[in-house]
Task: structure prediction
Amino acid sequence: MSKIRKGDQVIVNTGKDKGKQGTVLRVLDTGHVVVEGINVAKKHAKPNPMRGIAGGVISKEMPIDISNVALFNPVTKKADRVGYKVLKDDSKVRVFKSNGEAVSA
Result:
């Protein structure tokens, strides 16, 4: 069970996009995440008519290290750390460290 998952709202802690907020699109095995609208780079793409890809310069979200993002807590409207809590029925849920509420996702 990962602390940050696909679909979570996160805030960037460090780097050129510090303070920006976005949704996690992918979580990579290398300890990186791809966040919507964060760490955007210009890439030169060759045209590929078989795949329907037009050539040119495209904007692409690049991976950012998972340690540089924190989960957004909608109650406090701030970034928050995440922990785990075992319920009575032996299921694990993610909880915010600041107020102990369960992460909704």
User: Anything to note?
Assistant: Residues 9-96 form a domain with the SH3 type barrels. fold (CATH 2.30.30.30). The chain has a mean pLDDT of 92.
